[in-house]
Amino acid sequence: MPATYVWLLAIFLITMFSIYSMQLAARHREEDEDAGPALIEFGRAFPKEAVRDVVATADRQTVFLRLFDNKVGCVHYRGRTLACRLLHPGTVTVLPGENEYTVRLDFKKNTSESGEFIFASERQAAEVSLWLLGSFAASGGGDDSTALSPA
């Protein structure tokens, strides 16, 4: 009788692990599918840039792309069109937002795109901030765009 319980417990644990794994995979697939058109358009705009990681804002209107050479790309949805850009040192100021889910970016050349970008998690907001600050520091930016200022 105890062997039967062990087998039932093993089957139950395997089933629960399978269900959990499928839910994680489905959640990850949804995030990837949302960024699909942005990846395609960024690849068309900048064919020589290899994408390393992708993070979208909570409203899915802006997608930030970490590139392999420590650059950062940005794709912003404007209705039916997409605006793709590489973020260079000195062109963007990174500031903390109102809360931990928010990053404020001030674009020096195009102030109409400046604003707060709200992410789904605190981790995503921190990750994009580090991408931007890291890419600016790696390129020898060293100007005011690499410093976080208090809000």
TrEMBL record:
Keywords, sorted A to Z: Membrane, Transmembrane, Transmembrane helix
Protein's organism: Rhizobium aquaticum
Record's protein name: DUF2550 domain-containing protein
TM region positions: 6-26
